[in-house]
Amino acid sequence: MAAVLLALCSAVAFGSLAVTLNFALRRCPDAELGAFATVLAALIPVGVVALARFDWSWRVWPYLLAGLLAPGASQIFYVVAIRDAGSSRTALVVGAAPLVSVTIALTAFGEPVRAPLIAGAVLIVLGGIALARERVRPEAFRAIGLAFALGSAAFFATRDNVVRRLATHEHVSPELAAAATIVAGGVLIALYLVARRGPSGPVRGLGPAFAAFAPSGIVWGLSYVFLFEAFARGRVSVVSPLVAVESLVGVVLAAVVLGRSELVGRDLWIGAALIVAGGALIGGFR
Q1: In the 8-state DSSP scheme, what is residue 82?
Q2: HEC assignment per residue over 224-247
Q3: Among 27, 31, 71, 111, which residue's beta carbon has the most beta carbons within 10 A?
Q4: Three-class SS of residue 17?
Q5: Residue-wise pLDDT tens digits, 28-67
Q6: b/e for 32-54, b at 16 or more Cβ within 10 A?
Q7: Containing domain of residue 264, as a range?
Q8: Which parts of 173-265 fold into alpha helices (H)?
Q9: How far is residue 137 from each of residues 26, 27, 69, 286, measured CA to CA in Å?
Q10: Percent of the chain's residues with pLDDT above 70
Q11: Residues 6 or more apart in contact with residue 147 via CB below 8 angstroms
Q12: Number of domains in the chain
């Protein structure tokens, strides 16, 4: 029961991230610096939990490597996607990450093909078709945002495969694992800002950005804490399908909180239902 509740909490927290980022970008439109500020804020809940149950181990290195992919690279793409495509559509596209993950596993690592995986893939593809069929979108919508969202999903999926391959026998506490991924992600984003903006890139304008993006980071950090704790207490076949609900949570919250600015229509609801069902199938039977 604890794993179920933790997985649902993770789904709600991550689903709400898309909405909180929307508000943050209205106050500070610098998406790249916002991604860095979000990571810094995420370290608050993750760091508190990790320090409370400190259990250092050199076996944490796979999670440091995984953190470079997600939340490192993925977070930059995710925040930019929210800015360009909106909260609901970004949450929906990122929900396709299980399809990318299982595709990598099947083609690169030779994992066995199973009927539920194929069914889940078909459902996600149908959800993507429903999204593509949309005729009415917000005025500020930019299609490039969906490409950034797909890129974010690809980094998430690659991270999942890295953890599966490298961390299978490297047992570390979930608190340490979560902290390691966040720290590594923050380092990568800082280096990206230095390369793009010079040595002062990560700190120039950071104060206002942190004030705007801190709520998003705290919510996001909590989602990581809940996720790693859920996997530490329950089977993947139970936790993964529940976590897949995060995309539907994002669409629902965007429709309720952001209202007409998101223009959530029938095709988007259909796409959300199909993608969540497909992600749940892949997560439960992989």
Answers
A1: H
A2: HHHHHHHHHHCCHHHHHHHHCCHH
A3: 71
A4: helix
A5: 999 999 999 999 999 999 988 888 777 777 778 888 989 9
A6: bbbbbbbbbbbbebbbebbeeee
A7: 2-285
A8: 174-197, 206-233, 236-243, 246-253
A9: 19, 23, 30, 35
A10: 97
A11: none
A12: 1
Would you tell me how many other CB atoms lie within 10 Å of the CB of residue 57?
13
Q: Is the peptide bond before 215 cis (omega within 30 degrees of 0)?
A: no
- pTM (2 d.p.): 0.91
Task: For 10-30, give one letter per residue: b (16+ CB within 10 A) or e.
Answer: bbbbbbbbbbbbbebbeebeb
Tell which residue, 64, 57, 141, 129, has the closest CA to residue 96: 129
Query: Residues near 247 by Cβ (< 8 Å), separated by ≥ 6?
Result: 15, 91, 92, 94, 95, 272, 275, 276, 279
> If we measure between CA atoms, which residue out of 224, 250, 239, 246 comes closest to residue 22?
250
Euclidean distance between CA atoms 123 and 140, whole angstroms? 29
Contact yes or no for 265/92 (Cβ under 8 A): no
Query: For the segment 188-212, what is each residue's pLDDT rounded down to a tens digit?
Result: 999 999 999 999 999 999 999 999 9
Alpha-helical segments (H) within 28-143: 31-52, 61-67, 74-85, 87-94, 97-108, 115-132
Residue 30 three-state SS: coil
